[in-house]
Amino acid sequence: TILILDFGSQYSHLITRRVRECGVYCELLPCTQKIAELNFKPKGVILSGSPFSITDEGAPHVDPAVFDLGVPVLGICYGLQQIAMNRGGQTGLATKREYGYAELNVVRHPGHIIADKLFEGVADKTTVWMSHGDHLDQPPKGFTIIGTTTTSEYAAIAHEKEHIYGIQFHPEVSHSAEGTKILKNFVIGICGANANWSMGSFIDKEIERIRTLVGPHGCVIGAVSGGVDSTVAAVLMKRAIGDRFHAILVDNGVMRLNECETVKHTLNDSLGINLTVADASDLFLSRLKGVTDPEKKRKIIGNTFIEVFEAEAHRIDNENKELGRDKIEWLLQGTLYPDVIESISFKGPSATIKSHHNVGGLLEDMRLNLIEPLRELFKDEVRALGSLLGIPDDLIWRHPFPGPGIAIRVLGEVTPEQVDIARRADHIYIEEIKNAGLYRKISQAYAALLPVRSVGVMGDQRTYEQVIALRAVETKDFMTADWFEFPYSVLKRISNRIINEVHGVNRVVYDVSSKPPSTIEWE
Ligand code: XMP
Questions:
Q1: pTM, to two decimals
Q2: What 3-state class would DSSP assign to 340?
C-alpha cells in the first residue's frame, strides 16, 4: 500500500487515481493523520499539494514521523515545501508564480542511482503542469537538483542518500505529459510496491472482507434502484453471503416506464439476488397530491422512502427470526470513492467529516452498521467491476436517475396522469437516442413535462395541450455540464414520435442551457 497524505489540493484524488492505474493499491488520508495511528505499514508516502501557502497561519504540516518510517517519500508542490521545511530548506513566495505549462529540464547525475530513479525513462525535456505560488529558494542540505524550469531553479530535488523526492509540478494531472510514468517510477521502481491491484483481486479480497465482517450467520439489507452502483454492490453481497443479503426495491410510483419489472427481472431472475419489491406507489402519489414545490417533493419522497424501507426491513427481520437467522445488523450502501474523498478530504486547519449518507436515519433507528463495498472505487472502476460480475451492459451504462424520479420531471403537481405522460415521452426519447447510437455519448437525458399548455393543430382540430422539454447533457462529474448537440434528424424523429404517440402533448422543445447557470434537472 502507498499512503497519500492529502493537504487539500483539488488534485489529491487524481494522485490516487494514477497510482491505481499503475496497478498499485493506495490509500488517501488527511494530512493530519498521525503516523503512529496508521493501521498498515505503507511501502511509500506521497505528500499532496495544497491551497495553503507554507507561510499561511494555520497552514497544515505533516507528522514528522513520516520521515522516520524508513520508506520513500515523494512531495508534490506543497508536499515539496513540507519536505524542505522538515529538512531545513528555505522556501519563499515565488517572485514569478507559475501556473500552467512549463518545460521541465531533467538534470541527471551519472552514477547517482538514487537521485536519477524518479525520472528514469523520462525525456530530458518534458512538459509538466505547474500550479504554485511558493517555491524553493534553496534546497535543504543533502539534496541535489534533478529538474529545473525557466522560473524554478529547484523544480525537482532528490536526497543524495535517502529516497526522498520533491517536485514542484503536478504529475497527477493529464497535462503533465509523462506524469504517470514519474508516479510509476516512484511507486514501483523506488518504493517497490507490487503492481497486483486488479479488479479480479479486488473482488476476491472484498468478498473475504464482507464475509469476515458479517460473520457466518449475519444478515444485510440494502436498497436497490436499478442503477449501476446499487446493482454492483448487491451482486458483490450476493456472491459473498448469498441469500443472507436482502435487497429491497421501493416502487415509489415515479419510476420510468416498466422500470420496476425490468429491474426485478434483471436482479432477481438473472442475477439471483434475494429481492423484495415493495409497491408503495399509491402511498407516494397520495402524499405528493397538491404539492408543487420541488424541495417539498424531494422531502416527501425521501421521508416516505425511509418509512417504507424500514417497514420492509422489519418484516424481513421477523421472517428471518422464524427461519432461525440472525437479526439484520448491516445496511449496504453503494457509496463511491469520490463521496468518501469528499467526506474525508482535508478542508482547512481542522479536517471536517461530512456525513454523505442519505439513509443516515435508518442507521440510527434500526441500529444498523454500514457496509460499503465500493468505497474504494471510481465510477468507471465500478463499471469494470460490474462487467466482471456479469451484469448486463445495458444496466452498466445506464444514465443516472435521481431518487425523486419523475416527480421532479413533472413540473408542478404530480398526478398519476401527468406521470404517465412524462413516462411515455421519456421512453420514446431514450429509445430513439439508443436507436441513433448516441446513448453512451450522452451523460444524462430525460424528458420533462411542463405545466403549460400551448395551441396546436392536429388534423383539422385545434389542440390545447402540454409541452415536453427534452434535456440531454454531456458532463464528466455532473457538477458542470453542457447540452448535447443532437443531429437535427434525430431531434426531428423524437419530436415527431412524441407528439404523435403521447396523448396530451402537442409541442416538444429542446433545452439548450448549460450548467451553470442552469442545473441538469428542471426542479
Ligand atoms: P442537478 O439538477 O443538480 O443534478 O444539476 C446533478 C445530478 O444529480 C441528480 N439529482 C439527484 N439525484 N436525488 C438524487 O439521487 C436528488 O434529489 C437529485 N437531484 C438531482 C441529477 O439527476 C443529476 O444527475
A1: 0.80
A2: helix
